[in-house]
Amino acid sequence: MTAKGTLNIKPSTGWQMEPIWLPSPEAVLSRLGEIATLGFRNSTLAEHLGFSLFRVIVGFLLGAIVGIPLGYAMGLSNWFRGWFDPIVEFMRPVPPLALIPLVIIWAGIGEVGKIILLFLAALWIMAIAARSGVSGVRISKVHAAYSLGASKWQIMRHVIIPNSLPEIFTGARVAMGVCWGTVVAAELVAAEKGAGMMIMVASKFQSTDIVLMGIILIGIIGFTIDMLMRWAERWLVPWKGKG
Amino acid sequence: MPGLQIDKLSMRFDLPNRTSVQALEDVSIDLKAGELLAVLGPSGCGKTTLLNIVAGFLAPTSGEITLNEKRVHGPGAERGMVFQQGALFEWMSVRENVGFGPRMKGMAEKPKREIVDHLLDVVGLQEFKEKAVYELSGGMQQRVALARCLANEPDVILMDEPLGALDALTREKMQGLVLKLWKETGKTIILITHSVEEALLLGERLIVMAPRPGRIHKEYNLPFAEMGVGQDLREVKKHPDFATTREEILSMIWDMEEEIMGGAAK
Ligand SMILES: Nc1ncnc2c1ncn2[C@@H]1O[C@H](COP(=O)(O)OP(=O)(O)O)[C@@H](O)[C@H]1O
Ligand SMILES: [Mg+2]
Fold first, then answer.
1. pLDDT (tens digit, 9 = 90+) per residue, A122-153?
2. Is residue A50 included in any domain, yes or no?
3. What domains are there in chain B, each with its CATH number?
4. Nearest to A184 by CA among A213, A225, A219, A227
5. Given ligand 1 and candidates B10, B12, B13, which is best to mutate, with the most ligand atoms within 8 Å of its CB?
6. Cα–Cα distance between A158 and A204 in angstroms, integer?
7. Residue A65 domain-assigned?
8. How far is the CA of B48 from the centre of ligand 2 (A)?
9. pLDDT digits (tens, 9 = 90+) for A155-202
């Protein structure tokens, strides 16, 4: 109590957090503005994110180009299934990150190494999706097509492939998600440019605001990829789940 | 002799555990062109197997199928098939589904469109032709399946419980449609059903099959399909012979099912 009779209490200031542990949202936002205009480590923000995205897309596409035909072959031929099923089933649960050391030995951790890693991350997922898309075709659809006079090749083209597309799209969505996670992790290990490299370097200099900003951007991009894939799915395979 | 001959057909499935199932034993049926045969029998008596062999999806253990004096090997466009459900191509519109057979044959766009339009009129789906098949009700989907089969001009139409998944009212309407199509097109039809009433209404001939091994138990020649053409099917059901035959067959199938269950079913 003061001499004049008023209460003199210092209000509690609550928990105080040093910005080095958890910077304020304003700080993170202003850092986003700064890095977006000035760049980070000789590259603009768009370049960092763009490089990560580019690796993901190339790795995924290569994985799909090899994986889908492999999955089709496994779904259609017992010989292929016999040889490749054990390999694919074994590789599928191996986390792609566990392959980083091997890929570094084989190809280094440069651009080629990262793309091989992402290729491997997408390959098994796409192969399994294509295989189950083929073997999941209702036998009555194939029979119907046969008794409508379709040849083996026509059944492949007009029944088996369209029937497998929804599964392949689901696989593609999963694969894109896995690739995005893998690329960030691979860039944490080593990279000149990329979202993962950005937050790793920032962390070494204890620029927590940059780290947070990077995590949020990585999250937003991952989410956007998934939304785009869903949208493409609705547009391209509207019959999904309607059989 | 034109028509469809099923001659001493037997089918044994060898199971992985070294036992085997005699799904059909010595089944012979002689169908004249344009006849409609209904096949009834308890579940597991080999009805689907019989149809799959006639369609050419399965090779029998012994016996043979002759269609218009030619022996049948493998599936062919002269034997069309209508399944219970799920055999439409959901990535195609109604129009594309119906036009599938002609398209596979490489028919030109214009004659194909004429065939498709005509058949959509026949089954009453003209205004739905651009819709996706999964947007249609179950009854409409089966109309698409019928139209798709007819578009290919098969000699024989094989139907495996085509109306089995429909509600009672839709089913009754579809029975009328099947009768009408049969009369108008003069196709030979084999129709499998598990509804005794449906078999009596639609079958000009009827066989009742028994299980273990799957075989023909009894054959009938029936007047009701002929009566039902162009008439309300409910009137046909009022015919005194209809009720007696239905009861006779029902108790026959009842007995078989009881035997299968070892008397457990009451
Ligand atoms: N591919 C198959 N492999 C082994 N057994 C089969 C096969 N197809 C049918 N069966 C057996 O043959 C019998 C007849 O089956 P099915 O023709 O489907 O009967 P229904 O259509 O009259 O119900 C059944 O006992 C069934 O288990
Ligand atoms: Mg059956």
1. 999 999 999 999 999 999 999 999 999 999 99
2. yes
3. 4-78+156-265 (3.40.50.300), 86-153 (no CATH)
4. A219
5. B13
6. 56
7. yes
8. 4
9. 999 999 999 999 999 999 999 999 999 999 999 988 888 999 999 998
What SS3 class is residue A94?
Answer: coil
pTM of the prediction? Answer: 0.87
Which of B75, B105, B132 is closest, CB to CB, to A146? B75
Query: Given the CA of residue B47, which atom of ligand 1 is nearest to it?
Result: 22
Query: Chain B: nearest CA to A147, how far in angstroms?
Result: 5
Tokens of B103: 């398209």
> Is there a domain that residue A25 lies in?
no
Give the closest ligand to the alpha carbon of residue B46. Answer: 1
Please name the helix (run of DSSP H) or strand (run of DSSP E) that holds residue B101, with its range, or none: helix B100-104
SS3 B165: coil
Residues in chain B with pLDDT values less than 70? 1, 262-266
* Cβ neighbours for B77, distance < 8 A, ≥ 6 positions apart: A147, A148, A149, B101, B105, B152, B154
Contacts of B101 in chain A (CB under 8 A): 148-149
- Whether A136 and chain B come into contact, CB under 8 Å, resolves to no
Mean pLDDT, all residues of chain A? 91
Which atom of ligand 1 approaches the CA of B209 most closely? 22
Note down the domain range covering A160. Answer: 44-197+206-236
B131 to A58, B84, B96, B126, B137: CA distances (angstroms): 37, 21, 10, 10, 12
Tokens read off for B262: 């070892």
Q: How far is the CA of B165 from the centre of ligand 1 (A)?
A: 20
Looking up residue A72, the CATH number of its domain turns out to be: 1.10.3720.10
Residues 195-224 of A with CB under 8 A from B: none
Give yes or no for residue A101 having a pLDDT over 70. Answer: yes
Question: B83 and A163 in contact by Cβ < 8 A?
Answer: no
Distances in Å between the Cα of B15 and the Cα atoms of A71, B9, B18 are 28, 20, 6
Residue A243 lies in a domain: no
**What ipTM, to 2 d.p.?**
0.90
Number of domains in chain A: 1
CA distance, residue A241 to nearest chain B CA (Å) = 10
Q: Which residues of B touch A138 (CB under 8 A)?
A: 86-87
- Cα B181 to the center of its chain, rounded Å: 13
